[in-house]
Batch of 4 targets.
Target 1
Amino acid sequence: MGCQVVAGGTGSVVTGFILRRLASGLVVLAIVSMGAFFLMALIPGDPAAVMAGPGASADQIGAIRSQLGLDQPLLARLWLWLTGLAHGDLGRSITFGQPVLQLLAQRLPVTFGLSALAMVWTLLFGIGSGAIAALKRGTAVDHTIMTAATIGVSIPNFWLGFLLVMVFSVDLMWLPTGGYVRFGEDPWQWFRYMLLPSVSLALLQIALLSRITRGALLDVLQQDYVRMARARGLSPARIFFRYALLNAAVPIVTVIGAILSLMLSGAVVVETVFSIPGIGRLMATSILSRDYPVIQGALIVTASLLILVNLLMDLAYAWLNPRIRYA
Amino acid sequence: MGLAALASRAEAGAAINGGGEAIVGLYANIGSLDPHFQVSHIAASVFFGLYEGLVTVDEDGRVIPSLAERWSSSPDGLAYRFDLRRGVRFHDGGEMTARDVVASLERYRRISPERGLPDLIERVDASSPQTVAIRLRKASATFLPRLASPANPVAIIPAHEAPKPLNQTANVGTGPFRLAEWTPDSQVRLRRFAGYSANTAFTGPQGLGGRRTAWLDTVTFRFMPEPSARVAALEAGDIHLAEQVPARAAARLARNPRLRIERLTDFNMPALFINHARAPTSGLALRRAVQAAVDVREAMAGATDGAYTLDPSWLWPNSPYYSKAGGELYGLHDLNIARRWLAEARYRGEAIDFLIPNISLHMKLGVILLEQLRTAGLNVRPVSVDFATMVATIASDRGWHLALNGFRAAPFLGPYAYETIFSGPNNWARAKALEDGPMRMLWDRFNAAPDDKGRAAAWAAIQALTYRNVTMVKLGAENLLIGMDRRLQGYRPYAGGERMWDVRWSPAGRVPS
C-alpha cells in the first residue's frame, strides 16, 4: 500500500519528510539537552551529600564534591557536557562511576523487552476487547468490557503489581516476585520474570485502548461503505477486518503512540516494584541521588525514542490512510 | 502447591555444611564500589566480604588486628609499626606485602572523602616486605579507630591497582569472597574465594574480622528499596534474608514456620536537627522549649510500630564510651516547662520551618513531632523535601529551623565520628564560633586525653553539653527487623552491616543454588 502524495514521487517526498522531521528532532534534542542541564543545576540537592549519607560531615561532603568535579563553575561543567555530547560521550555516572552510555546500553534492552511484552498484551487484549464490545454494542458483554476498562484505567500500576505478586508469587508461587533474567540467557525464564511486570504495565493501556477501539469501530461500523459491504453480501469477518478495522486504525494508532510514551513513564514504577534493572529504575534512582549525567543522558535517549515513535506514527498514518499528505 | 513450588526452588545441593547461595534483599542501593571512596554505611555489607584492612573492629566496635598481625606505637604516639600476616593472597592470586599496604594507604589519602585520617598521617613506608611504618603529624587517640572504621574502610588492594583513578579499580581484595558480578542499581554477587587466608590468631569471627570462614558458594545482595517487595520475595522464597522488614509485616512473617525474625536494636538513631544560626531557633530558650515539648516515646512508638528503644546516649550501649550524661533532659515531654521556656524566649509565634524528608520513618516522625510542637504553642510549618534537598538545605544557615535526619554509622564508630557533627566550622547545628567555643574545648580535651578513662570523661561532658545547649534533639533508636529463612545458620545481626561469612545452610535443609 503506497502513499498517494504530492507530485515529485513517493520515495523522494517521503525521504524529504523524514529528513525534515529528523532535522526538527535534532533541534528538539538540543533544547532537551540544554534544558536538562539547566534543570539539574536549578533543582536543590547535591549528589555528594546523598553519597555521603545521613550524618556525614560537611567536610566529607565537600571532599566528595571536589572528587567528582562538582565544585567547578556551572559554565565549565556545561562546556564539558556539550563537548562530550558532541563526541557521543554522555559522561560518567556520579553514583556508579560507569560511563552513562554503557549504563543506558545495559538498561535499554531490559525496558524494551518489558515494554514490548506489555505492548503485546495491550494490542491483543485492548483491540480485541474493544472490537468485541463494538460488535456486541449494548449487550451485557459490551457493558462488562467497558466496566472492566473503567476499573482498569483507575487502578494504579504499583498497586496492581503488589496485588499480582501476592496472588501469583506469594500465595500460588507460580511466578517470581521480582528480578530479571536476560532473554538470551533463558527465554522461558525471561518470560516468567517479565509476565507480572508486563501485565502491571499493560493493564491501564489495555483499558485505554479498549475504549478507543470501541469508539472508533462504532463510528466506522455506521458508515455507508460498511452498509454497502453488508448489502453486497461480504462475510462479516471480511467486513470487519478489511473495511471497519482498517478505517478505524488512525485513532487507534494515535493512541498506540501515546501508549508507548506512557509505558516509558510507567516503567519507572513497575521496574522499581519488581526490582528490574531497566532504564525506568535507573532514572528514578538517579533523580533521587541527583546523578546529573545519568538523568541528562536518559532524558536525551528517551526524548530521541519519543521523536522516533512520533515519526513512525506519522508515517503509519499515511500508510493507513492515503488521503493524508506529507507536509 | 506452595510447599511443592518452594521445594522446587530449593535445589538439593551440597549435603553438608558448605555450599549454596544466599540472596540478601538490601533496603537501599550501593553506588560506587571503589574501595577507597565508598562512605555509605549500607555498602559495608558488601565491602567486608571483599576487602580487609590492617585493622578492623570487633563485636563492640573495638579495634582488633586484621591483615596486620600486631602493631606497636612509639612512646610519643607519633610512630606506628604494623607487622603483616604472611601468606595472605589477593583475589587475583598475588601475595599481599607491605608495598601493597603503602600503595593502598597512599590511594586512600588521595581519594577518600574522609579527611580526618589522611590529615593525621605524615608518611607511610614499607620498612620490610612484612612491615609498614606510619608516621603521624600529631599524636591522636583517634588514629587506630579511624584506620579500623567500617564507615570509611582503608581497604588493602594490590599495588598495581592503586594508581587507578576513582571508580576504575578491579575490586580485588583479600576478603573471604571475591566479586562475581555487579549490576549497578540491581545487585552485587560475591563468590567464595578459595584462596582466602583466615586469621588464625582468632578462634572465630569477631565483628568485621577475626577468623572468618566463607561457607556459602555465592552471596547475592539485591537492592530492593521497596519494603513490600522485600517481604513478598522473602515469603515466596526468592530471597533468603530481607533487611528492614516493617514491624507489622514482621509479626506476620514470624508466624511463618519457614522464617524467623532477627532484631538489631542498634540500627538507626533519628534526631531533630536544629538551626542555631537562624532566629527564632538561634535562642537557647526556644530550643529548650522544643526539647521539652517533644515526646520521644510517642514519636518513636508511632513511627516504628513499636520497633524502637529509648536511650539518651549518642552511642550504642556496647560502646566503651557509652554514657547517660545529660539524660535528665532526654524525653522530658513536659508542656508546662516548654511553655515557660517559650515565655522566657519571648516567642511571638514566628514561623518555624520544619524540613521533613520523604523517607518513610522520617515522614511518620515528622507528622507526630509537628503536632507535638504545635500543641506546645510553636508555629511550625512542615516542608516536605526529598533527602538530597534536605541535606543540601541543612548545610546552610537559611531555609530551615528544624529538620529530621539520623545517624547510622556514628553511634557505632564512637565519639570521634561526632566531632565534626557537633563542633567546628561546618557543624550540623550551624553553631557559630562563639557558641561552639565550649564544645571545641571539650573536644580538645577528648583528643588530648592520655587514656580511655580521660577520653570517656571528656565524651560524657560533650554529650551533656549537647543536651544543655540543645545542639540537636535525640529521638531514640529505630530497631532493624530482619526476616530470614530459618535454615540459614550462623547469622548474627550487626550494627556494622550484614555479615554473610560464617553463615551456612542448615545441614538438614536443602541448599538453594
Target 2
Amino acid sequence: MIARAALAVAALAISAGPAAGEHLLAGARAFRDDKFDAALVEFRVAEKLGAPEAGAYAGAALVKLGRAEEAVEAFASSAPGDDDLLDWYRAVACYDAKLYGCAERALAGLDRAGPKVAAEVARLRGEIARVLSPQPAPASVDWYLARCEARYGEGRAALGAAYCREAAELGGRRPDRHGVARANAVLVRFEPASLPGSKR
Amino acid sequence: MKTHVFYAGAAAALLLSGSARAEDPQPMQHPQPDHAAAHAAMHEAMQHQMTAPTAGAQMPAEMPGMPDRASATATRGEHAAQAQQHAAAARELATKRGAQDAAMARGGNMHGATAGAAGHTGSGMMGETGTSQQGAGMMRTGDMHGGSGGMMPGGGGMMGGQSGGAGGTTGGSGGMMGGTTPGTGTPASTPMAPSTGGPTSGPMMGK
C-alpha cells in the first residue's frame, strides 16, 4: 500500500516535471511581455500537468485581463500568506470583484512589503476602509447574497462561497444581522466545513 | 579512534550543509529546479507588471446594491433614450402629415400658401418662398426645433414655430394643430436641442 502511494507521488512529481516547468516559464515570459492571454494558456497547461503554483499564476494573469471573478476562483486553489506578490494580485482580484473583505484580508498581510507595493497597498486599503466604514445597507447585503446564490447555481462554488462570506460579514455588522442566517445556510449547505470566519 | 574520526567528519559535513542552507537566497524550495527558475521568472514578471496599471484596481471602491452615480447615469441614459424614441415617433408623424399637407396644397385646398406669402413668419419657417411643399420637406429633414410648425402649410407652421416650437420636441407638436392654434407644448424635460423658438431666430430658419 505504502509502496503504491510512493509510486503515485513519484508519478505525480514526474508528471509535474520538466514539461510543466517549461510551460510555467513560457507563461512567466508572456506575462512579463504583457501577453496575458498567452500567459494564461501556459499556466493552465502547467496546472493540468500538475504544477501546484500554476493556479495562482493563472489568477494573476486573469487579474491583468480584467477577469476578476475567474481570478478569485483561480486563487481559491491556494491559501494566502505564502507569497506577498501573489497576495497582492489576489487582493486586486477580490477588490475588482467587490469582495472588499477578502481584499482587505489579503492586503493586511502585506504590511512589510517594499515601498512601491506599500504605497499601492495603502491606497487600496484606504479605498476599502472608505467603502466599508458606513453600516452596510440591506440592499448591499442582498446584492452579495444574490451573487452567491447565482454563482452556486452556475456550479462556481468557490466564487459563490466568497460572495456568501462577504454577505455574512457585512450583515454581521448590522444590528439586525440582515442576511447572515441566509448566507450561512448557503455556505453550510454547499461547504459544511466553510464558515464565515474562514480565511479565504 | 577510527570511529571518532568518522563522527567528526560527519559532524563537519552536517555543519557545512547547514550553513549552506542558511545562506540560501531562495525564499521557497522547489522540488524541480526548472520550477524554481519559472517561479523566479514569474516573480520578476509580477513585480514588473505591478507598476503597470490594472484597470480595475484603479477604480474607486463602491458598495454594490446602492443607488450610486453609475445607476444615476444609467437612469439619465434611459431618459435620453426614451426622449429620443419620442422624438423619432414625432418626426415620423410630422413627415407623414407634412406629406399629406403637401398633397393638399398641391390640390389647392389650403390656405397656407397665402399665409406663407403674407406672413413674415411663414417665410421664416417655410423657406424663402414659403410654399407648402418646402414646409413639408423641411420636416422630412427630421429636426423638431420649433419647426414642427411645418406640419401645416403656411400659417399653421408659423404658429407652431413661434409658440410651440419653443418647447422642443413636445412643444413643437403644437404646430401640427394648424394655423389658428398656437403651439401648446410644454418644454421637454430633456431638451433634444436648444430651441430658441423665436419667429425668425430658430436654427431651422430657411434661407
Target 3
Amino acid sequence: MLNFLARRVVQLVPTLFFVSLLIFSLQHLLPGDPALVMAGEERDPAVIEQIRQQYKLDQPIPIQYLYWVKGVLSGDFGESLRNKVPVLSLIAQKLPVTMQLASMAIVIAFLIGIPAGIVSAVKKGTAWDYGANLFALWGISTPNFWLGIMLIFLFSIELGWLPASGYVPLSENWRASIASTIMPAFVLGNAIAAILMRHTRSAMLQVLESDYVRTARAKGLSERSVILKHAMRNALTPIITLGALELGTLLSGAVLTEQIFSIPGFGKLIVDAVFNRDYAVVQGVVLVTATIYITLNLLADIAYILVNPRLRA
Amino acid sequence: MGAMRLLRLAVTAAALLLSFGATVQAQTTLRIGLAEDPDILDPSMGRTYVGRIVFAAVCDKLFDIDEKLNIVPQLALSHETSADGKEVTIKLRPGVKFHDGEAFDAEAAKFSLERHLNFPGSFRKPELAAVDHIDVVDPLTIKLALKAPYSPLVAQLTDRAGMMVSPKAAKEAGDKFGLKPVCAGPYKFVERVQQDRMVFEKFADYWNKDNVFIDRVVFLPIVDATVRLANLKSGGLDLAERVLATDIKDVRADKRLKLSAALEIGYFGLTLNIDNDKNKGGLSQSAKVRQALDLSIDREAITQVVFNGEFVPGNQWISPEHPYYQKAFPVPKRDLAKAKTLLKEAGVTLPVAVDMMVPKGAENEAVAQVLQSMAAEAGFDLKIRVIEFATSFKQAQAGEFQAFLIGWSGRIDPDGNSYVFLHTKAPQNDGGYSNPEADKLMEDARVVNDPAQRKAIYEKLTKIVLNDEPIIYLYHRRLLIAHTARLEGYKPIPDGLVRVIGLKLK
C-alpha cells in the first residue's frame, strides 16, 4: 500500500511538469496581446510598450516560461496583470468557495443519484424505474444555465426565499452561506445525480443477477440486507471512481453555473483570466486544478482498495 | 424507515434554509450591481469603464460634469487659462481631507498629477501629455505649465486624470495602491473580494459630508444581465447598471423599479480600413464606395430592430444632443438609388466583398446582421467575422479587417472622440485614415479655447470626415440604469457613472 502510494506521488512530478509546459505553450497560441487587452480603450503605444517590459512580455516565450517556473518553485505564482493581486492569494480566496460548492453539489448528487439508481434497479420495469429514468434523462438534458435562471425566477423573484445570486462565506454566516449556494449546488448536483443514477442502476442490475446474490437470498437473508449489504457494496466501486472524477471536474470550476449565480469561484476566475489574457492567473489556476484532479484520482484508487478488499494484495 | 428519516431530515433542512433566505439588509447600504469585475482601483492605472463607476464613489476629481455636460468644480474651485493658452491656474477647495486624514493641498495635487504623468504603467500619461510641469503657487493654488496650448485639458481633469490620491498612502503602497485606494471621495475603502464584492463606507471627514446620506456602498459584479435584473427585482440589489435595451419594457412595467436613461457621450460605428488593408478591398479604393455603404444603411431601422428604438441614430462622433453636434449635417436617410449610382461611378465590380470584423456579443452580432442585409441591397457582400474581443484589438491594429464594428465609450470634450481615431498616425487610427486638412483642423481645435470658435472648426472637420468616411457613425447607446423606487435623488449623467452625492434610500 505504502509502496503504491509512493509510486503514485512520484508520478505526480513529471505529470505536473508536462501540464505546466502545456498550459504555457497553449495559452501563448491564443491570439491577442495581453498588454493590448490590458490597455483596452486606452491604447497608447508608449504605455503598452512599458507594460510589455514590466511584465517581461517582450522576452522570448521560453525565457518567460523559465521566469515563471522559477517563481512557482519558490512559491511565487506571479501577480494578476489586471488587478495586481498575487495569484496565490486569488487562489486562496477562490478555492474554499469552489470547494464548498463542489462538495454540496456532490452530496446532492449522491443523495439523489444513488437511491434513485438502486430503486430503479430493484424495481426494474415498474413505474419507479420509469420515473427514475425520466428524472435521469431530464437531469442530463437540462442545460445548467436554463435550470439556473428558472430556479432564480422561482425561488428568488416569485417566492423571494433565496438570494438570486452572490456568495456569503461559510465563516461569515453559515445559514446565509448555504442559502447562497444551494441553488447552484442543486443545478450542478442534479446533472451529476442523473449520471450517477444511470451508472448505479446498471451496476446494481449486474450485481443482482450474480450468483452470490442468489446464494444470499437462498440463505434466507432479508431483501434489505441483500441489497444494501451484499449487492450495493460491490456495485459501488465504479460509482466512487465516477464520483471522484465528477468532483474533480467540479473543483476545476463550474464556469457557467458560477457565472449565472455570480459565485466567485475558480470557474469565474479562469474564464475572466482567459478573456483578459491574464496569463499568470490562468497558469496558476490550471496548475492548481490539475494537481487537485490528479490527487482526487489517487484518492479514488485508495477508496477502491478500502471498499474492495480483493484489491488489497 | 431509513428513507423516511432521510426525507424528514431533508424537509427540515429545506424549511430551515427557507426561513433564512430573505436576509435583512441594513437600510443604509446601497448595493450596486456591475456588469463586470473592475480592474485595479488605482486612478493612474485603471482602464475600464466599470472601474470608473466605482471611482465615482471613492475618488473625487478636480472637476466634475453635470447633466448638461458642463464642467463644474469638485476638489478645485476654479480654473483660469492664460492668454497664450500655455498656463492653467487652478484654485483648490480648502479644508479637504483624504481618507487617511492627510490634508489635500497644492502639494498633494501636484503629487497626484505628477504620479499620473510619471508612474510606470500609468494610462493617464497620454491624457496629460500636454503638461510640461506643475508649480505650487500657494498652498491652495497650482499652475499647470503646458508644452503647447491644449483646450481639452480641463475636460481631462473631470475623469481619472483629475483624481487626487493621498501622497502618503501612494508612496507607501507603490504599485499596490489600487488594492486599497486612499482618495478624497465620499466613501472610503473597506474590503474587496475579487469578482465578488467591493465594500466602501461613508467617509466621516468628507468635505461635502452633509450631502451623503447612505452609510455603505457595496459593488457586486454580476456579469449576466438577466441575473442582474433578477437580483434587483428580488431585492438583492438596489441599483443595476447596463440594463439590456430589450429589458426596458419589463423594468418600466415593474412599479418597484425606476429606469434612468442617459444618452452616452460615446458612439458605435463601423471603422473602415482605408490605407491599412493589405488586400486593397473595395472600401479602400474610393470614398465613393464608402459613401455608398453609408447610404445603404437605415440607422433608424437598426435601433428599432436591435434596441427597441431606445438608442439614438447618429452620424458624428458625438450625439445629436451634444453641444458640439453639427446640425448642418443631420443623420442621412437611406438612399439605395444614390448608393448604387456611387458604386457605378467608382467602377468597382459588384458585389463589393467586405471582411467585417465583429467582436463577439449578441447585440453586436445582431447589428452586423442588419447591416449585412441592408448593404446587400446596394451591392455589398458584408462577410461577418465574429471574433473574441481581445483578439479584435490585435487584428485591428494589424489592419486585418476591412470594416470593424466597434464602439467608443466617449470623452466629454469632442477632441477625445475624434483626434485619437482620425488624426494621421494617432494610436487608434486603425484604418490608416490620413487627410492633412483634417489633421490641421484637429490640431487647431486643441489650441482654441473659445467654444464658438472651436465649434466652427469642428464644423469644417465634420464636413471633411463625413465625405472621406473613415468611420461610419451608426448610433449612440442609452446608458440604462435601473434602481429600486426606494432610491431617491438619482441623477443620470451622460458619462453613465453613478453619483452618490444626494442619494437617499427610503
Target 4
Amino acid sequence: MTKPAPRGSPLVVSDAPSDSSVVAQVLDGDAEAFGIIIRRYEPGLLRFAARMLGSADAAADAVAESLVRAYRHLAQCRDPEHLKSWLYRITGNRCRSHIGRRHMSDIALDDAPPLADPVDTWAVLERSEQVALVERALAQLQPEKREAFVLKHVEGLSYEEMADVTGARIPTLKMRVHRAREALLLALKELV
Amino acid sequence: MTLLLLLLLQSPHARLEGRVPTAALPGLDSLIEQAVAESLPTEPLVQKALEGGAKGIPVPRLVNGVRHGLVQLRDARAIVSRATPGRASLDGDVAAVAAALARGLDPGLIERLLSAAPPPEPSPGEPPGPVLHAAADLVAHGFPADSAAELLRAAQRQGLHGTRLLDVAVAASHELQREGGRTPVEALARVRAMLPNVPVASPPHPRTVTRRPGRGS
Amino acid sequence: MTVIDPRVQEALDGERDPATLPPELREDYARLTGAAALLSAAPATSVADRVMAQIREIRREAPAPRPPNWLLRPVTFRLRPVWTLAVAAAVAAVVFLPFREAAKPGAEEGVAQFVGHFPGARSVEVVGSFNDWQRGALALRDDDNDGIWHGAVVLPAGQHEYMFVVDGERWVSDPLAGRYVDDGFGAGQQNALLIVRP
C-alpha cells in the first residue's frame, strides 16, 4: 500500500531505469537499450550544442557524433552515475573541434532569423525576435565563456558537474560564468 | 563467432586488468576516459599501459608515461588540425603524428609535411605515417630537417607515396656512407637525381648473420 | 566591459535571494535570467534514428581478427559456465599455434624477421605492441646453439614497437633495428621501431 503524498507535493512514481542499469544493459549486449540514453539526453545535448555552434544542423551533427562515440566507448564511462556529465563532456569537446574548424559568426548569420529593427525597449519585441537577439549576443562571447554560461544557466549544471564536463577547476568556472554574464549583458545592451 | 566477439569487444579496462598493477588502474582509467571524451584515439594509451605493466614499471612512472602519451596525442591533433584545416582529424593520422613526435621530429616540420602541396595525382586520405617516419629516419641520420622535408616533397611530386618514401630515406642514408663518406648535401643531391627511381629497400630487412665456420651449416 | 554588481552575481549563483536585490540591480538580474529562459527552448530536431542506425551498423560490422596478433595473444576473459568447456577447447587450439607456422601474409600484412646475438642466453623472446606486450608469445630460436637467435612472423603492415627479453628478465633494445623511440617511462629505455611493409 502506498503512503499518501505529503501535502503540496506531487505523487511521483517513476519506473524509468537508472542510467547505471541502462549502461549495464547496453554493455551486456542490448544495443537497443542505448535508445533510452539517447531519448533521455539528446534534448539537452542538442540545445547545448546549438548554443555553442549557432546552428541546429551543426548541433545535430556534433551530437550524433558524440552519441555514437559514447556508445563505442561506453565501457570506458567509469561511473555510470555521472553519465550525464560524461555525455556533455564528449559533446563539448566535439563542439570545440567544430568551432576550431569553422567561423562561428558565419554560421550564426546563416541560421539566425532576421534581426528586428533597433527598438528602444525589449518588451515590444516578439518572442522570436527576443530569441534571435539573445542568440546573437551569445554568439559574440568567446567559446569558453559561451560554454560556461550555457552549461550553468541553460543546462542547469552545478559547478561540480561543470568541472566534470570541462575539466576546469570550480573557481575557474565561477570566474568564467561571471565574465560570461558581464559580456552577455553588454552584448544585449548594445543590441537593444 | 561468440569467441571472436568476446575477445574483440574487451574494453580497455578489461585489457589492463591483471596486466598492470591494481594501484595504477584508477589513474589509467581516468586518462583513457579523457581520451575518449576528447575524441582522441585510445589504443596508443592502452598499448603504453600494457608495455609499462610488462616491463614492471613502478606505478607513478607508468601512469606518467601514459599521461605523456595523452599529451602527445593532444599535440598531435592540434598539428593535424592546423595542417589540414576544415577536415576532421582521423584517429590514424593523430596516432601517426604522435608517433612522429615520440621520435623527436620537430612539430613545425611535421606540420609542413602534412600540409605540403599534393602531388600531381593526389590520393585523398593517404596516411601520413610513412612520410613522417621517412623524415624521422633522415633526421636521425643527421640530415638537416628542412633539407629532408624538401627531398620528401620532391619525391611526392614525382609520384612516390607511402612506403616508397621510406626507400628514399634508406637511399639517402646509403649515399651518406658510400665512397668513404659523403656530406649530407651531396647525399641528398644524389638521391634527388635518382627520383623517382630510388631502389626498393630489401624487404623484410633480412640481416646478414655471420655463422662460425663448421657449426651446424 | 560591463561590471555586474557582486550582489547580482550572488543572486545568479543562488547564494542570495533575488528579492533582496535593490531595485536598480533587478533589471540586470532579470535580463540575464530572461536570456537564459529564452535559450532554454527545446530543439525541434532529433538525432535518435540516425544514431541508432549507426549503432546497428557498428554491430553488423564487428571487425574480423587480424592474424597473428589475435592468434599469438593469450587473452583472459570471463565465460558463462555453460560455454566454458566448448570455448576453452577452441581457445586452447588457437592460443598455442606456434608463430613459425603462421600463414602467408595477406594484403595488408608483411613478414617481420628478428635476429639477435645473445651467446649463452637460455631464452630470447620478442615482446611488443604486436602482441600487446604479452610475455611468452613470441619466442626466438637458436637451433644450432651459436648464440644467434632468430624468428619470423607475419604482422599487420605499419608501425610496431618491441624489445627483446633475454632469459626472462633482461629487456634489451634490438641493436640491429635502426629505428628507436624512447619508451616514455623516464629511464631512457629505447624501444625498437619496426615498420612492416605489405
